[in-house]
Amino acid sequence: MSGKLSPGSRLRSQVCSAEVVVVRGGTGTVELTCGGVPMVPLNAAPGDEVTPVPGLMAGVTVGKRYIAPGDEAFEVLVTKPGDGTLADYADPLLIKSAKPLPASD
Asked: What does the domain layout of the chain look like in residue ranges?
């Protein structure tokens, strides 16, 4: 799915079982793909004869947040795991690292 994605948008992959929720829409436009194929709204039917890109099938983990390398203000949360790689077109998203907790003395 391309364009400016709004927070709360629920999307799913056309090539695997992955589902995400957009947490932050980012500052620009992101062409969100999974397995090299554009993601679609949760209630949309998958396209006919879509095939994943072999190099973009590393999988996503439920509960993890992913950010776009070109727009770190864009963030999605994986709500259902899948075999595809989340990407901004063909540039894989990065797992957002957790902020360290303050040390307690």
From this structure: 10-95
pTM given for the model: 0.87
pLDDT in tens, the chain (105 residues): 555 789 999 999 999 999 999 999 988 888 999 999 999 999 988 778 889 998 999 999 999 999 999 888 999 999 999 999 999 988 999 999 888 888 876
User: Cα separation of 53 and 35, whole Å?
Assistant: 6
Tokens 């090299």 — which residue? 36
Mention every residue, 6+ apart, whose C-beta is less than 8 A from residue 15. 34, 35, 36, 37, 50, 51, 52, 83, 84
Instruction: List the beta bridge partners of residue 74.
Output: 25
